[in-house]
Amino acid sequence: MGGIWFVKDPDIFIRNRWMTAIHVQILGVLNIVLCGLVLCSLIAISTRKVALIITSEYLIDNSRFESLGKIYWNEITGIEKTKKYSLKISIKDSQSKNKKNNLLKRIVFNIQNSTNRGSIIISSGLLDCDREEIYETMSIAHENSIQ
To answer: What is the dihedral of CA 142, 144, 146, 147, to 10 degrees?
Structure first.
């Protein structure tokens, strides 16, 4: 809503001599685009019935907009607890690059995982069960798939 106002009437937002109407309008367009992207990601997440599926062959991560989806256990190199509510799943680097995600998902994935290259973070705060339960289930499934 604010972005439309920036584009429609930029003169009231000019506060100094370096700011021009075109600067305010560019900020308005960026605001409109980013709000649209956030809305699309919220709709995509809200339509998913199950956020995390753990089977003996693979893990399906749908907990975020930029999630990788199906990840086979042989592509996972490690699972560890991080912070209070999160799990860090280390994956082979090729796994994240091989997925056929659209440009927006790839950008968001790279931003979210900029400090955790080669891994994904799953927060139990977004799920119905606690971190310990998820960790135990994933560890057992991962160990059984290796054997």
So the answer is: 170
To which residue do tokens 């604010």 refer? Answer: 2
Rounded CA gap, 139 and 134, in Å? 8
pLDDT-above-90 percentage for the chain? 1
Residues 87, 145: Cα–Cα separation, whole Å? 19
Helix (H, G, I), strand (E, B) or coil at 118: coil
| Helix axes of 21-46 and 103-112: crossing angle, nearest 10 degrees | 90
**Total length of the chain:** 147
Given a cut of 60, is residue 28 above it in pLDDT? yes
* Six-digit token string for 108: 């968001």
Residues 6+ apart with CB under 8 A from 58: 70, 71, 72, 73
The residue written with tokens 């900029």 in the block is 114
